Amino acid sequence: MMNESYSSTNCEVCTLHKATRGLIEPIQKTSRWFENNAAGFAPLLLRLPVAYEFLDAGLEKLSGENWFADLAFPFPINLLPPDVSWELSMGLEIIAPIALILGWATRFFSFALIILTIVAIAVVHWPAEWHTLAQLWQGYAITDQGYGNYKLPLMYLFMLTSLLFSGSGRLSLDAWLESIKSNNT
Question: What is the pLDDT along the chain (185 residues), one digit of tens a residue?
Fold first, then answer.
């Protein structure tokens, strides 16, 4: 049985609930606003920097000399002549970024760049020799100090994987084409 002197207006739990709700409601409103108005920017903000980096690498290959002949590629890539590997990687590094910027076939091109990045990490960025995890960790760097430099490619790998899973988002050619397709059916 409830005490007669108990009053809901003085309830500590109710006061705490009101104060908490006063803090949570603006956060929830802000979160809903971002979901409704800005969620399409998240994939775009991944697509643009990763596209820039790969396009820069592709254009550098376009105007540079083929240095793939000096590398030991893993199977099955080693079956291709170095000139063919050079042309394929250069082409992908030029075409895929343009597609990513537009948001066209984002999952396909993200997957293709993931494969390219894994090969690049294995062939160019991974340390030539390491015996402990501490030595391997030294390769988690931007510049190669004799321990590899897989930090940036690993970051690109995570960015591309996110695009592979999420797609191009609302601000993309993919979304626009899908809306046209939906309106025609």
Answer: 455 454 555 666 677 777 777 788 888 898 888 888 887 788 999 999 999 999 999 999 999 999 888 888 888 888 889 899 999 999 999 999 999 999 999 999 999 999 999 999 888 877 877 778 877 787 777 887 777 778 899 999 999 999 999 999 989 999 999 999 888 87
Return the number of other C-beta atoms located less than 10 Å from residue 76's C-beta: 7
CA dihedral 152, 153, 158, 161 (to 10 degrees): 150
Helix, strand or coil, per DSSP, at residue 95: helix
Tokens of 111: 């997957």
* Structure tokens, 124: 């160019």
Q: Are the CB atoms for 109 and 100 separated by under 8 Å?
A: yes
121 alpha-carbon distance from chain centroid: 16
Q: pTM value? A: 0.79
Q: What does the DSSP 8-state code read for residue 5? A: T
- The whole-angstrom separation of Cα 104 and Cα 116 is 19
- Displacement of CA 10 from its chain's centroid (Å): 52
Q: Are residues 44 and 171 in contact, defined by beta-carbon separation less than 8 angstroms?
A: yes
